[in-house]
Design a protein that fits this description.
Length: 134
Amino acid sequence: MNQNSATASDSDVAGGEATPAHREALKGHLGEVGDHLKQAAGIAGETLRGAASAAQEQITQGRERIRSEFEETTECGREAAREARAVGEEQIDMALARGQEFLESARDLIREKPLAAFGIALAAGWVVAKLGRR
């Protein structure tokens, strides 16, 4: 309460009606209440704006960290795919080289022992024909 406000004593009230002094005191007190409410609302608004700003900043930082992690994950995935491709190509090259070596070995054997090669081919054909008839 404002100490400078006019206060009325019980003798100022006549017949249950407020005297002008009481009315003025009431107006003064209500004015103070209004001022305090305005100040409280202003403080609450500032607090909410500050909290919203801080939350927005944290959301933005979180978004950036997530984006950064996804970019790193994507790059790691791409690198793994490149490595897998290189390994696969190496395996294919080795298999082709072995196949070439096998064919070269078979050609050399046929040149060195043509009669034995003919006999092996004839026997292999006969076995395949027998299996195919069943």
